[in-house]
Design goal:
Layout lengths: L3 E7 L3 H6 L14 E6 L5 E10 L2 E7 H15 L5 E4 L3 E5 L8 E2 L8 E5 L10 H7 L36 H10 L4 E9 L7 E4 L2 E10 L2 E7 L7 E3 L2 E8 L1
Antiparallel strand pairs: 1-4, 1-5, 2-3, 3-4, 6-8, 7-8, 9-12, 9-14, 10-11, 11-12, 13-14
């Protein structure tokens, strides 16, 4: 399971500060966990995370590999805002089935269960999260989510990770334009795969570049595809692929 780190954002300006930076509406944390991303001014992905209310503070649950860079960027943006960004000793607990007290439903998809934050590490999680991610087209940081990603192409609207009514945030203009003025021609898709191919392998359709192979679980995988070429049998190294569904 990907290692996570929990950051704490505190101070009287916390919510207004985050509201001007992230893709989702911070006020929704009063009703549960909120999934969001931090973008460049050009609308490209920097990091994704969950936000949870902890009293007047906001907890950010994010990939360990991104935590330092996110903390640094938030520090760069805060200027004179009354905000502090600090590490915590909290640990993520995850599971399926009935949501425990103090846990939050994962907002991306009902099949992803719950998330909870505790002072002690989790030792009993045997869930095959990768299989669930592939089945439900859930992108992962460092694989489907990269610095070249536009969040609508990787399914953030479907995953409840972006709010188009909240007002301005960094990267909002590009994201809104993609939503309202263009038809997405590229994006994530679930494919059936037979044979061997490495993550990151180029996908060809009739000999033409059609996309990239990403996360795999058994005979299914996530791919980033040009939708107009994702027809019939496609190839990636020694594997053959067929489209199952688009994001």
């Amino acid at each position: 399971m990907t290692q996570r780190r929990i950051l704490r954002v505190s101070g009287k300006d916390t919510r207004d500060f985050l509201q001007g930076l992230v893709t989702n509406d911070v006020s929704k944390i009063d009703d549960g966990l909120v999934y969001a991303a931090l973008l460049t001014p050009q609308g490209k992905y920097i990091a994704d995370f969950f936000m949870a209310a902890d009293g007047d503070d906001v907890l950010l649950d994010l990939d360990e590999a991104q935590a330092d860079a996110v903390a640094q960027r938030l520090g760069m943006y805060k200027l004179r805002a009354a905000v502090a960004i600090a590490q915590t000793d909290l640990h993520l607990h995850r599971g399926l089935g009935k949501t425990p007290q103090s846990a939050h439903a994962d907002p991306r998809h009902a099949s992803l269960g719950w998330r909870m934050y505790s002072d002690t590490p989790q030792t009993d999680d045997t869930t095959d999260w990768n299989s669930l991610y592939v089945t439900h087209l859930i992108p992962s940081s460092g694989v489907e989510l990269t610095p070249d990603s536009f969040i609508l192409e990787v399914g953030f609207e479907r995953l409840s990770g972006v709010d188009f009514r909240k007002g301005c945030y960094v990267g909002q203009e590009v994201t809104a334009r993609m939503k309202h003025k263009t038809e997405l021609r590229k994006g994530l898709a679930r494919v059936h795969i037979e044979g061997e191919a490495e993550t990151g392998a180029a996908i060809l359709a009739d000999g033409k570049p059609a996309g990239t192979l990403l996360s795999r679980s058994g005979s299914e995988a996530i791919a980033y595809l040009r939708y107009d070429r994702a027809t019939g049998v496609m190839k990636a190294e020694d594997a053959t692929l067929r489209l199952i569904s688009k994001s």
